[in-house]
Structure formats: structure tokens, C-alpha cells
């Protein structure tokens, strides 16, 4: 049995109107039926575009949001139905690291107070002296000086603040930590350090992680299993390597096609998939397959009427699409134009989609067309990286996870993201 | 209805100032505001006026050259015949209709006026803050029932806000009868809905902050979160409002005294009462009204200037 199991979790926010008596006029279907399980000691990476409900799902696990329906079974106990005082006790074992490091620290509390508050609430440590010792211990573990205790959040840098956030979770000795975009607010150079810290802590303390990100590059490295979310639901879930080797859901394919490959030759042949239109509103999600308004392979049958369940297609690779096998076999063709531009990161996908939908002519540029080569110009360096990485991989075995490695990857991704955006703006004129 | 929206809007905008603590943090927020205020003419003028007023209020009764009630020059003044005594070396502000030294009365009256202003403001602040905390706590952490409590309280304060404040104060004073306490209560009650709405709005803004969620996530109890996390971070706009309220409280207290609802005891001069007494002789001796009137206007101006300067200094949109 898994340590944490979500069973068809739904979080619907009521939309209210009215002056004297609030009437519910509709719902935002932020999370709409997510089932997943996380094994002890593993890392589950949850990826998806902004607004798809990742944060809401993460918060639902800790019951920081009301859960509309479904179960959150942690170590055999269904948290969704727990009375609030019992839930409070469980919070010690389930902790969260927040997206905004500064916003999640009370500006008027010093670090000692921030860190000891939770301990006191759970009766950890006899007195403040004992708690202080423990806090010093943890501060050392997360790489903060012990004189940080009497200082205030604004006196620290972004990376240090996130370390404080991590320390706040650690002092309670949790089993599971939910990291909600733990590095997206940080400088690229610091991102790798924090990711590495999370990884080290997992090894030394045997932690289980749910890591949320909108950027595939961030979760790729540390996740055992990755789930891809679209508009409140999971569309694909697979062991990390399998997902990267062979994404099967059209949405994942589109996301992946946006990630540049370090090898320039592969990069040239890479098929790019452009998503059409905007992310639909979670207050009014499309019927049938949530993705059918933007799916390049959308079919006339089923797609708009039946919601595809998340089914195992073998080896734990789960996909929610009616036509997985057909798309793979090539018997079902792309129905909407694709292969326009290299795009990086979900945000760029969205940005481009908006641009196209704003009425500019949609040009079909073959994958290897001249302006396409732009990302390949960054690559003198990317090439070197690739070689270096290969060497490193040989040396340290399959899992090359040293600091520089992650750092480069993220840095590259960002570099090229800006490159891709520039090109995206230029291309329709070409 | 426009009165309602104007007042309420103004309060809500002030409440949103707490958000600024996200941009610039806690202690440094006020330090930064203070730095900005030091270069603001408005703040400096306001502070100087308030400083002078408070100084006069404190030392006034001791430095007053004559007793405020001593009718030393009774024989020189004949109000019935229109015979008054104006400024002169012995009596800087002249004499009043009973032959008392106006300057001494003015000095002693300053303390009384400050007292009325501060006490009225405190009544409004304390009761309003309690109501606001209750409402804000119910709204942020009380679930469905809490939200209903909050709605009821807020509709009630909206109704109070929609009444013209002086009318409300006069009605309360009329019920309670003529006395200094009456004035303070009446003026204070008018301030209650302002502070309540302000603090509640400010708490709602803070209640949605990530650090509150984080406190909940580490297992701190609701009540503790409200008291130790949300409340301390919600107070900046209340401090601004308290300063602005001193100005309105002083004016409204004076107005009530002027209408004859103030302290009936002539032994204790107060600017509002002095103004009311001067009214009868305005045709012959307008200066008798001018001294207390100018005192009231200038002090109210001082508090308004300082309050507005604070509001500006705290506003993240204006912060450079
Ligand atoms: N308290 C709330 N009330 C109403 N709607 C909400 C609430 N919280 C979130 N939503 C909506 O639910 C949807 C999902 O939000 P969520 O924050 O979970 O997205 P996300 O995937 O974390 O996005 P991001 O990458 O921007 O953090 C959004 O459309 C958001 O507007
Ligand atoms: S079910 Fe249809 S619309 Fe949905 S992903 Fe599959 S092909 Fe596309
Ligand atoms: Mg989020």
C-alpha cells in the first residue's frame, strides 16, 4: 500500500454573488477527479500549465482547501473526512513548501519564532531551549548559519528564504513534503541548489515528495513518477524515464516537444507541436476530453462527448486519451495544423497559442526550416554540455545529479525559452 | 446611497494598504514610511502643529497667567451694552463676557479638547477594533457560520456608515443627556463602524496571505493564527485612521458642544463650549469666537495632514 493515495479528489470552488445572502452561481472546477498514489521514499512530480489546479491539489492534500469530494488516504487514514482537530495533529507528518518564499513567511516573526511555532503546536521539544537546539540542527542541514535565528525574513536572499521554508517543514519531522513550485520564484542560479538540497534531504531523511512544477525541466531530475495535469485532471502518468522517452498523451507530446534537446542534430529533427487556442476556463471546462478544444489529434467521435479515463497502457504508463494506440500506430492523423515553432516551457506554449488565436495567419513551417535553426545557435555551448554530461553519466552511473548538471539544464532551458519566444514573434512575418 | 459607497470605498481602499507589507516587509515597512514622511512637507507641517497642540495641552494649565474661571475684570465688561475688552498687554486674547482672561481659558481649553478627541477616538478604536476582529476572524476562519456572522455585522456597520455622522452623534447625545461624557461617547460611537470595517477588511487581505496558510499547515490553531499572525499585520491602516479620526473627533466634539450638548460646567473651559458661548456676542465681539475656532481648525488640520501623509507613505502604489 502506498503512503499517500488520492482517490478521485475534487475541489470545486463556489462562485458567489449577491448582496445580503450569497447565492452560489457556479463553480470553478479547479481539481476535478484526480487519483494518484505516492510510494514511501519516492518523488512524484506534478506538472501542468498555470491555472490547471496544481496548487489547489497540493493544498487539498493538507486540507488547506476544502475537499469537495474524494479521499486522501495517508498511511491508512482518510484525511478528507477527519475532524479538524485530528487533522491538525496529522499536519505534523504532511508538510508543505510554498511557491512564494517571502510571502509564506510572516514579516513580523523572526526565524526562531517561525520555526518553533509549529514545534510548540505539536508538543515537539520540552522547552524553547530544546527546540532551539533542534532548530540549529535543521538550519545546518538546510545550509543556513545558526545566527539566522534572531533575524527576520526580509534580511535573507530568495534562496535562503526558501531554505527557511524547507526548514520550517523539516523541524516537524514529516513523512511527506509537498513542494509547490519550490524554485519557480528563485533565480536560475539558485534553483539548482535548492533542488539539490531537496534531493539530499530526501536521501538522508527518507522523505516522500510531491513536487509541483510548471516546468518539466525542474521535476525531471528528481521525480520517480511524473503526472501531467490539464485543467483539473491527470492526462498522463508514468515513471519519469518512460514519460520522457515516449510521451503518449497529445498534451504531453506538446509539452515535451517544447523542451529543446541538447544534441543539435536531434534538435533539428525534433517535431514541434503547437497548441491552438487558450487554456479553457476551469469554471466552464469543455465536455468530453478536457483537451479536445486544443488537441492536434482531436477526432469527431468520442473526444467531445466522453471523458477518457486514465488507463494503464502497460508498465505503469497511464494515459487518458481515447486514441492512444491509434495515434501511436499512426492510423489516426493529426487533424489540426502543427509543427510550427520550437517552443519551450508551458508558458511559451500558452503565449504562442494566444498569439496565433489573435488572428495572425497560421503559417505551417516545416520542422527544419531556416529560421528554425535559431535554437541551434545557442548550442555551441549546449553541445559541450551534452558531451560533458555524457562523460559525467559514464562516471557516476545512470543518475548524474550533481549541482552543475541540473544548473546547466535549467539555465539552458531558460536561455532557449527566451530565444524561442523571440522567434515566435518574428516568424509570422517570414 | 452615495454617502455609503464613498465612505465605505474610502475605508476599503485604506484597508488594502496592508497588502504593502508583502512588498516591503513588517518592521521595514514602517521604517520606510517614516523615511518618506521625513521628506514630506505635509507630514512635517502636520507633526509640528500636533506637537505644538500637545505641548499647549500639557503645559497650558500651568503656564496660564490667570485662573480660567476667575472673573477678575468683571467690572470692565458689559455684554448687554456691547462693551468688551479686546487684546491688551495684560490679557493677550482679551476678556470674555464674564470678564475672564480668554488666553488662560484658551490654554486650559486645549487640554480639554485634546482629551475629548483622544477619548472619543479611543472609544471608536477599541469598540470598532473588537467588532472588526470578531467579524474578520469569523470571515477568515469561521467557516460557513462564521461568514454569516460576518455578513450580519458588516451590514449593520454599513447602515451606521450610511447615516450622516453628526446626525448620529446628535441623536446619541440627545438620548444620553448633556455632559462631557455624552460628547465623547456620541463622537466615539460614530467612529466604531469606520474602525470595524477597516480592521475587518485589512484582516481579510492578510487572511489570504501565504504565511497564514503556512501557519495553518504547520498545525497552529485558528485562534492563535488570528491573534498572532493576522492581527499584528493588519494594524497599519488602523494607525493611519486613528490619526485621521482625531481630527474628525475634535471637530465633531466641538460641534456637539456648540449645539449645547457639551459640558455644562463652566469651570472647565473647552474650545467647543467657548465657541458656543461666544456665539451670542458674535456681532459685537467676533474675536471671542475666533480664538477657539482657529484652535479647532488648526489642530484638526494638523491631524489630517499627518494622517494623509502616513497614508501616502504606506501606499505601495506611490512608493518609489
Ligand atoms: N479560493 C479560490 N476560489 C476560487 N477559485 C480559485 C481559488 N483558488 C484557485 N482558484 C482557481 O482554480 C484554478 C486552479 O488554481 P491553482 O492555483 O490550483 O492553479 P495552479 O496550477 O497552481 O497554477 P499556477 O501555476 O499559476 O500556480 C484557477 O483557475 C484559479 O483561478
Ligand atoms: S481523447 Fe481525443 S481530444 Fe482527448 S487527447 Fe485523445 S485524441 Fe485528443
Ligand atoms: Mg500554483
Automatic annotation (TrEMBL), chain B:
Keywords: Cell membrane, Membrane, Transmembrane, Transmembrane helix, Transport. InterPro entries: BP-dependent_transpt_permease (IPR050366), MetI-like (IPR000515), MetI-like_sf (IPR035906), OppC_N (IPR025966). Its main location: membrane. It is a multi-pass membrane protein. Residues 110-307 form the ABC transmembrane type-1 domain. It is found in: Cell membrane. The chain crosses the membrane at residues 43-64, 114-141, 153-174, 180-199, 238-261, 289-309. PROSITE patterns: ABC_TM1. It holds the Pfam family BPD_transp_1. CDD domains: TM_PBP2 (cd06261). Belongs to the binding-protein-dependent transport system permease family. This is ABC transporter permease. It comes from Streptomyces rubiginosohelvolus. The lineage of its organism: Bacteria, Bacillati, Actinomycetota, Actinomycetes, Kitasatosporales.
